[in-house]
Write a structure and sequence with these properties.
By secondary structure, the protein is mainly α. Helix content is 76%, strand content 0%.
Length: 173
């Protein structure tokens, strides 16, 4: 993985890693407990991560963060329109992306999607709704039953983020 702001080892980058970890812990807790992610948390993450990115990388950090935000938030809005993500999940993805460049943003999206798929299938199996999900297109009752097995997606976003972190620290590729 190429050297980027987030994995530079500089103080602002370490601050961004710490802030994102704390923010994701709070988002997961809130999403599990209330099935929502507070706007205040997303705004605080966005402001803090963007400030740290600009502090560590200068104006290029602003451009990198803006492009990564456009990718993550744009993809999130599309998934929200399809009913696959909640609004808080989209805002959380957007806030986290402000510490990334475009390459890492694509990697975050891919890793989050994989983690979300694994969590979703696991939840369907645990709830006994896997069969309903497979045949849900044929019956609205089965589709409704499968929708009860939705996943608090902050967990998938956190898994994707920490997977990205582990890859960036060369713990795993």
């Amino acid at each position: 993985m190429s050297e980027s702001f987030l994995f530079s080892g500089e103080v602002p980058a370490l601050g961004a890693l710490l802030l994102s970890g704390l923010g994701l812990a709070a988002a997961c807790f809130s999403d599990l407990k209330e099935r929502r992610i507070p706007n205040r948390l997303n705004v605080a993450l966005a402001i803090g991560l963007m400030a740290l990115h600009i502090n560590g990388a200068g104006l290029s950090g602003l451009l990198d963060g803006a492009l990564a935000f456009a990718l993550c938030f744009g993809c999130g809005v599309l998934l929200y329109a399809l009913g696959a993500l909640g609004a808080g999940d989209v805002k959380l993805l957007g806030a986290l992306s402000l510490a990334l460049d475009s390459t890492l943003a694509w990697q975050l999206l891919a890793r989050t999607a994989l983690a979300g798929g694994i969590l979703g299938v696991t939840r369907l199996i645990a709830d006994g709704n896997f069969r309903h999900a497979l045949f849900g297109l044929l019956s609205s009752a089965r589709r409704a039953q499968a929708e009860r097995s939705s996943v608090p997606y902050a967990l998938a976003i956190a898994a994707g983020w920490f997977w990205l972190f582990a890859a960036g620290m060369n713990w795993t590729q």
